[in-house]
UniProtKB/TrEMBL annotation:
Belongs to the EamA transporter family. PANTHER family: INNER MEMBRANE PROTEIN YTFF, OS03G0707200 PROTEIN-RELATED. Keywords: Cell membrane, Membrane, Transmembrane, Transmembrane helix. Residues 7-139, 165-283 form the EamA domain. This is Integral membrane protein. One of its GO terms (cellular component) is plasma membrane. Pfam families: EamA. It comes from Streptomyces coelicolor (strain ATCC BAA-471 / A3(2) / M145). The keyword Cell membrane applies. It is found in: Cell membrane.
């Protein structure tokens, strides 16, 4: 791995670990209105990201066509607001492990879908790594009680996770990670407010208590501001296929942090699953394989004695 790939991998890994921690924070927001919580989270993140959007942000936004603005709206609706709503809806009739297992399949879907959309064949090594990650995520979380509605909403959560990566690909280059994160947070805040008013009327927003405020601050500042920027910076360097491999770290991070708030435990199954996830990420991202330069150097070292013998 070269320096760019290493930085991209570390950024993607950090982002997914932070998102995994947010699942633990979600457990503290069970009584807070969904849309109101999403509005506060993304609205605060938007305000914090605006100063970080970079020079020329207004000009870059004006240069976007209607198709790209529609893509940004879909990215926020599907990959952010819709994803969180799907997870919440799934957990009403299914145990949390069920949507987690479906979301853990996102690396496999992205490893196939992104190359096909770009008119090329999927990379075999990335696909193998994605399969390892999916099996590891399943092992970490296991399977739980569910019904048809729980499975349907879990599939919607998978679509949201895939959309968060795939829909961002064409707009990441013109906007950059910071401005892209800023825009989608602003759009997601507006969509959350609209959904809240339509679904819950005047009760869509209330003052959070101390625990809820702490959880919302963690999600807004750490998970959204830091996590989103790191995610898109990583995706910019290593591509959507390899970056999505690191989403397997989300259930690992959730399993590691759940005991801190008494909502779970970390045992042998979680340890085995974590090892499978790490192996899949290492294989699929290329970290477990020697770089081209290293392979050339090894080949040169191997053939050097043969050339010396020929001279003799």
């Amino acid at each position: 791995m070269n320096a760019t790939t290493t930085r991209g991998s570390l950024l993607a890994a950090l982002a997914c670990v932070l998102v995994g921690g947010s699942f633990t924070a979600n457990s503290l927001l069970g009584d807070y209105p969904y849309a109101g919580g999403q509005f506060l989270r993304y609205g605060l993140a938007f305000l914090l990201l605006v100063p970080l959007a970079g020079p020329g942000a207004a000009a870059r936004l004006r240069a976007l066509g209607a198709a790209r603005w529609l893509r940004l709206a879909l990215l926020a609706a599907v990959g952010m607001v819709g994803f969180n709503l799907a997870v919440l809806a799934a957990e009403r009739t299914a145990e949390p492990a069920v949507p987690g297992v479906f979301v853990g399949c996102a690396p496999v879907v992205v490893a196939v879908l992104v190359p096909l959309l770009e008119g090329r064949r999927p990379q075999r090594i990335v696909l193998y790594g994605a399969l390892f990650v999916a099996v590891g995520a399943f092992t970490v979380q296991g399977w739980g009680r569910t019904d048809g509605a729980g499975i349907a909403f879990s599939v919607c959560a998978l679509v949201g996770e895939v959309g968060f990566a795939v829909l961002a690909v064409p707009v990441l280059r013109p906007l950059g990670p910071r401005l892209l994160s800023t825009v989608v947070c602003g759009v997601a805040a507006a969509e959350s407010a609209l959904a809240g008013v339509l679904a819950d009327g005047t009760g869509w927003l209330r003052r959070p208590d101390a625990v809820e405020a702490g959880a919302l601050l963690w999600q807004a500042v750490v998970v959204t501001v830091v996590g989103f920027v790191c995610w898109y910076m990583g995706m910019q360097r290593i591509g959507a296929e390899r970056a999505t491999l690191f989403s397997g770290l989300i259930p690992v991070a959730a399993a590691c942090t759940a005991p801190l708030v008494g909502t779970g435990s970390y045992g042998a199954a979680q340890a085995v699953g974590s090892a499978l996830v790490f192996a899949g990420v290492a294989v699929g991202s290329g970290a477990a394989l020697p770089s081209a330069r290293a392979r050339r150097s090894a080949a040169e070292r191997q053939t050097a004695p043969e050339r010396s013998l020929e001279k003799l």
